[in-house]
Amino acid sequence: MQPPAGSQVSRVPAQRTPSEQLPPAPAPPAPQPPRRRMRTVLTVIAGVLALLCLGGVATAYVWYTRASTPDRSTPDVVVANYIQSFLADRDDTRASEFVCQGGVNIDGLRQLREDLVARELRFGTKISTSWESFSIQRQGDSANVEVDLIFSAFVDGISQSDRQRWRFETRHEDGWRVCEAEQS
User: Fold this and answer.
1) What is the pLDDT of residue 8?
2) What is the DSSP letter of 28?
3) HSE-up of residue 12 (Cα within 13 Å, Cβ side)
C-alpha cells in the first residue's frame, strides 16, 4: 500500500522509486558531425567547373554555327560568296549552298569555268579570279546584281588579265540565293 500523498513516511533503503517518478536521465551529448569543410569546398569547385564547361560548350556551338552557316544576307554578298566558291575555289558543294532551290541556270558560268581549267592546263599556270564593281537593282524578293569578273594569270613571265561583266539574278528564299548567271 502506498502512503498518502504529502506524507513524510520514510522509506526503506531497499525500496526503489518507480521509474516514472525519476527525473529523466540526461541525454548523452549529440555526436559532433564530422567536419565537412573539404567536401563543401570540392562541391563548390566542381559546380563552378561544370558551369564553365557548359558556358564553353554553348560558346563553341554559337561560334561553330556562325562559322558554318553561309552568309546569304544581301544579294551582293551571296553573289560574291557564290563566285568565290564556284569560280575561285571551284567547290561545287560549297557553291550549292548559295543557289536557288528550284533550279539554277548557270550554263554560261559553268562553260567559263571549264574554259579557265582548260587554259590553265594548256599554259601551265594558275588563273586567279576576282570581282569588283557591284551594281544592284532590287525589286522586292528578287534582285539583279551586275559585277565585273577579273581573270588574271602569269604566262611566260607576263601578267595578263581579262575583265568580263556578268549579271546574276538572285531571289530571297530563306536568305538570298543565285538563280541565274549570264554574261552581260
Assistant:
1) 59
2) P
3) 3
